[in-house]
Records
---
Amino acid sequence: MIVKKTFYPKPEDVTRKWVVVDAEGKNLGRLATVISKLILGKHKPEYTPGVDMGDFVIVINAEKFVVTGKKMDDKYYYRESKYQGGLKKTTLRNQLEKRPEYVIEHAVRGMLPKTRLGRRLNKKLKVYAGPNHPHQAQHPVTVEELYPNL
């Protein structure tokens, strides 16, 4: 009889990196899928569902992504005030003028699990509208040099 043991990673076995993703000129949906894969850890060979295996992701130039078609005026973001008639909607163009970071955060949050793990993973995403970020002490690397086939 052969006994096979299943590998289940422990928190001390996981190595996390800080990855910088430049959003300039990239499609919003494709960018969000790459970011969610990095946060979930699906790019690692030891990926295990239900375990926090992912890297920290820093997104710079969040206001310079592109969308196809007429999404700038046809895509809406909704918020609710819980009062009668309190549903407010904003177009993607207006949201980019007010808070460009929110657009990428919202897209990535939709691709993460809707559980406690997903809420914990969402804290690994840092989005900045401009090219500068305050995370130089973590020695981040770009996504192209770390994972060229992603």
Note: DSSP finds six helices and six strands in the chain.
---
Amino acid sequence: MKLDKDFFSENIKTLFYALIIAVIIRSLFIQPFYIPSSSMEPTLLVGDRLFVTKYSYGYSKHSFPFSPPILNKRIFFSNPERGDVIVFKTPADNRTDYIKRLVGLPGDRVQFIDANLYLNNSEIMKSKVKNKTKINCGSRLIDVYRFEEKLPNGKKFHTVYLKDYTYQNSDVFTVPDNHYFFLGDNRDCSKDSRFLSSVGYVHKDNLVGKAQFIFFSTDKKIGNIFAFWKWHKSIRFNRTFDRIN
């Protein structure tokens, strides 16, 4: 069977157009992400795959693959709200994607006193949900208390703290203009804005998008996606299409 040159050129064109469409969708509308760490447990588990909307806070160079210098500032900007779960590029290298919960807005004062979170000198109220539970911290299982916290705007979510409250007190973190302060829900097992040398305050241009819902989740401890005979145990069917609070 003889194939003419048009066959190859048409297929190359089709692949090129498909690539362009995929880049546009990924950059302007929605992008999938995989959760590799336990810093956002119990909200997000290792093995969760989720969709992030890129249009939620407008666009910057970090909206595009490899962060090309095509925008020198964020355009079509919409203010994020306290409690949003957001993907951002870490200020340390402007390349690494992190996902955390937004707690402090520009001008806010954030502090931990006796293991309690304070925002603008007011304690963030939390009610205990569970006394005894275990949760992941890297490769370890740690004993934690589980709480429901409520931010001033009414946003509620669950967090966990080590039973010995290792993170007791902190200096006051005053969030600069055009920056945000993020925390992981797994409070004693999260590298976040409390660590100024590695994460610190995040500029609004570093925001990538808002986490919306989980579309697939697997437990790697039970088996990988190729071990189909373990799918009934490894796939977390109960998390499929869960909205992210």
Note: The longest helix spans residues 5-28.
---
Amino acid sequence: MSKERILIIEDEEDILALVHFNLVQNGFQVECASSGEQGLRKARDFRPDLILLDLMLPGVDGLEICRRLRELPDTRACPIIMLTAKGEETDIVRGLETGADDYLAKPFSNQVLLARVRAVLRRQNRNDSDKEKLLPIEHGDLSIHPGRNRVTVAGQPIELTYTEFKILALLASRPGWVFTRGQIVDSVHGDDYAVTDRAVDVQIVGLRKKLGPCGPLVETVRGVGYRFQEQNGDG
């Protein structure tokens, strides 16, 4: 039986009860919160392996809660799946921009939810295992530490979301190699992940902005995808 801890932040009682029941039935340890503020407190105490976060919460909405979770040391790297009645591409992009790792529009089936939960946890566990074997990547002022999930620019730490870090680590692992948007999605999120090209572009824009003077290292290859700049042989 799985022992991963999942925190559900959802204000609709029937959905909360149903999701809680199905996750517990499948062996997960589950805690629930019916508001964003309560969710933040429980996230600090429960230390979840995954957070299911509703977008439309009373008071402080899910986007703001997502931002705050990404600012807390204990939850900064915790995967977040947003649950919402909104299914438009603009809402998906906003959620990803804020730091969500996956997105499920209501109504969703229990099978789809469980599949997404397991996929995210599998990916997180695999990444935790793989990054222990990886050496830091250095490129000028930019340092990427896969084992620590840490990025610095000129010695200053840069706070990236889980997805932004995975994209940067993927591109930097093969400087000069061009990755299509589809390859980026498959590598970061797995096959059949419902993310549009536009969402990938938004992630890249946010990544470049956070990297500041090192942002241009992530290059656009028009009509194809993205690559990480190669080191200058003479530099």
Note: The longest strand covers residues 5-9.
---
Amino acid sequence: MNRIYRYLPLLFAISFAHAQSAAEVNIGFGTVHDKASGAGLDANLSTCAIGSLGCLPTPALSGFFMGFGGTIMFTKHLGFGGEASLQPAKQDYAYMRYRQLFYDVDAVYAPVNQKKVMVRLLGGVGGARTGFSITQTNCAGTAVCQTQSQPIGNATHFQVHAGLGVQLYVKEHIFIRPQFDLHYIPNFSDQFRSSTAPGFMVWLGYSMGDR
């Protein structure tokens, strides 16, 4: 899946050159949610009973996400695209810090595609990666302290993605698209409560070519 994303810009360029269709690039802002797993971790990063001495609960998934994406529409109603959304800032995870990333490649169906509005249905596959790190502060006496973040591993899962968006054109080529998303991630309950994580993004984008 990482290789697919590495060559995704090239696929967009080739497809656009051959199909002479519409292409879009966009940036998004929003959030994704999942409840806390109910588990706890101690200072040794071992599972512990919440409420016991030194045991911190693991958090829910929430907070600000930033996204990047693009779409090629081969016809007025059919196309494909890709999206990636991540937390720009790391979040607390008991004694660790984490950053969540989602990425997917989707088929796009636009049952409504008019001059000022497009309704889009998305469905595809991708991955979800939770990157963990530990932040440590080392001091030389009381004069100098240095804080370092050290990666300790990633939890990577396959995901199935579905989305529904309404694309509103504020100018001929500039649009805003509120979009609801549903991420189904088998084994995501290893990090959070559920394997299903709903989200909401607002995409700002630019459309090129014929619509």
Note: Confidence is low (pLDDT under 50) at residues 14-19.
